[in-house]
Structures are given as C-alpha cells and as structure tokens.
Amino acid sequence: MSTAQELVLRSVPFLKEVKNRTAGGQLENWLNANYGLGSDLYRDLARIVTDGVREGWAANAELDGPKYRLSRIAEPEEALHYFSVTAVYMNSVEPYRGQYHQHPYGVLSLIVPLNFGARLMGPNGWSGAGWTAPGPGSHHYPEVMGGALIALFYVPAGRISYDIRPPSECTCRLALGGARGEKGHADADTVLVERPAVRNARR
Predict the structure, then answer these.
(1) In 3D, which of 80, 73, 21, 76 has the Cα closest to residue 51?
(2) How far apart are CA 92 and CA 113, in angstroms?
(3) How far apart are CA 1 and CA 50, in angstroms?
(4) Helices (DSSP H) in 36-113: which residue ranges?
(5) CA dihedral for 7, 201, 176, 155, sign (positive or negative)
(6) DSSP, res 175
(7) Which of 78, 112, 160, 180 could form a disulfide with 46 if both were Cys (CB 3.0 to 4.6 A apart)?
(8) CA dist., res. 174 & res. 171, Å (int)
(9) CA–CA distances in Å: residue 14 to residues 4, 39, 97, 133, 186
(10) What is the pTM of this model?
C-alpha cells in the first residue's frame, strides 16, 4: 500500500532540483531525457500515484463522473519548494476535454498511461508516458484520448486559473510555449491547431 506522504517525500529531491528552472520546451526535453520512462523517479512516482488512484486517495473527486477526477495531494510549502502536487485521472477512448484553465507560472506534468495508447495533449502534441512542461501563461484544455491515464501535476506556487475564456469550439488556441503538431515546434508563443470533434466536460 502506498500513501500520499510517500508520494510527497519521493517528490522532494526532484522539486529541489527543478525549483529554479522555468517550465517550457527546454525543460520538457530535459525532463524526458533525465527522468523519463525507465528512470527510477518515473517508475517510483508512477507506481505510487497509480496505487493512490486504485486505493482512493488520489484523483478521487469527480469533475465529470468517474472518467474525470482530480485531487490536490499537497499544497505549496517550503518542504516542496513551493510547488503544489495534484493528481488527475482521465479516461476516454475518443478525444475528451476537461476544464479550460491557465498556468500563470507553468506546470510540470508526469503522464502515466493506464491503457496502451492512452495519450494526453501537451505542448508538442499527443504525449504518452513521460513529461510535458507547459510554460508560464499557457492555457489549454486538458485533453485525453486512447483510454485511461493519470497526470501528476507539479504547479509552482499552486497557481492555476479558471477565469480565462476558452477558444471557439472549431479551433483550439494553445499558448503552450510555442509548440504545435505531434512533435514540431513554432517560434510564436501562440499557434492555432485544428482539433477533431471532442466532448467537453460538463460545467
């Protein structure tokens, strides 16, 4: 059996290492190179948070029924170098969007697929097991397809905002550090990406 305290303690050395780095494409590449799938940190965090979802102490508050759930595991505090820790569970084979929101200071996101092929939309397109790191000021729908996954979010100062207007339903404007497509990049901070029809979470 795993506990929230175990997850917090395992996160502390990692957060100490990244506390003075800024979320964005460069940090995302570094995270995947150093702490991606196959690393001890990824394996430990994925195991603990997966246990937490199964045991009911992580991602246990329903936002749109059982397929979209969230929980704040830890508030920002000195021991965590003022990051909050949040777990989100999403489950949909078809593209599905959660609540539109903004990250004023960016976010570091560990993606843990529970089904083969489950993916989360990140700055560089659909992402499987590994990390994404949307930069400061990024705003987006959390979007899943291909099955169930868990996202473990480390949020500087715990700052997340829901008072931002979402884009139109025909296109999705990503302000995610200037990235687009499956793996391509653009120089601009904001690009337009055409989206397939998706279901949005109930408000």
Answers:
(1) 73
(2) 12
(3) 11
(4) 40-55
(5) negative
(6) -
(7) 112
(8) 10
(9) 16, 12, 29, 15, 29
(10) 0.81
Each of the 203 residues of the chain gets a pLDDT tens digit; together they read: 789 999 999 999 999 999 999 999 999 999 999 999 999 999 999 999 999 999 999 999 999 999 999 999 999 999 999 999 999 999 999 999 888 888 999 999 999 999 999 999 877 789 999 999 999 988 888 899 999 999 999 999 998 888 888 776 434 444 444 433 333 333 333 222 334 444 555 44
User: Which residues make Cβ contacts (< 8 Å) with residue 165, sequence separation at least 6?
Assistant: none
How many Cβ atoms sit within 10 Å of the Cβ of residue 36? Answer: 16
Of 68, 64, 117, the residue nearest 88 (C-alpha)? 68
